[in-house]
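QUALITY CONTROL LOG
STEP: pairwise intake check
CHECKER ROLE: data steward
CRITERIA: each record must contain a sequence immediately followed by its structure tokens, with no blank fields

ENTRY 1 OF 2
RESULT FIELD BELOW
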Amino acid sequence: MSGPGLKHVDSHSAIHEAALTEAMELNELLERLLLDDRKEQALEVAYVGVEHWETRTLRHAKEEEEGLYRELLEEYPEMKDQITALTRDHELLGLLIEEIKELLDTEGASAEVLTRFQSLVHVDLLHNQAEERILPER
């Protein structure tokens, strides 16, 4: 069963906004460090970014899938396609994180890593908008 914060648009939106704001701040810091050719610090920030996405967004996504999405499907079976699309978004976020980790292990912090982090923000923003559109239907 999902917690009350996941079921209400305002609180759910606040969860999303806080995580995205932090992610965007990390991206800006990573970009500055890369531009200043501070590779060691950039690598540290990139790993903090990975941890952020894994502990904030992907953990939240798992809670949604195990609670909110299941509850929505039970109550509104006609939402199956929307829930499937939202779940796929979560998978894409996870795939991007795996790509980032692989790039960090093989090449270190780079513009390519930053591009992946920026893609995470964009996919998550679109995902959150879609998700918040279906919450009022509850």
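ENTRY 2 OF 2
RESULT FIELD BELOW
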Amino acid sequence: MADAGRKDFSDKIAEGITPDSQKSYAQQAKEGVTDGLDKAARTLQPDNTKSTSQQLGDSVSSGAEKGASAAEGSGKSLEQTASEYLDSAKKAVNDAVEYVSASVSGASEGAKDGAAATKK
């Protein structure tokens, strides 16, 4: 729950989930104004006067804005940046799977060689 005079978290989530294409111009304008006012309140209100939940909400909002502006500053869309991170994660997982597979295969072959040597 947001502090008094601040935009409620559930409203922010609902607005973020609904695509702009499904909103009227009046709804979009209202969201723009209330987002601007909430952002101003986030910046102007000292943290020591905010509730813990409001501090957390403001921190999340601030981090999301910084992430979006960093993606914009790189000339890439947020979608492209996220896709690159996903591709990097997939590669890391694939490399780990190959390493484990090679280790298990190497251990199996080593055991076979050792067993064959003891038979001789």
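INTAKE CHECK: passed for both entries
DESCRIPTIVE NOTE, ENTRY 2: The CA atoms of residues 29 and 35 lie 10 Å apart.
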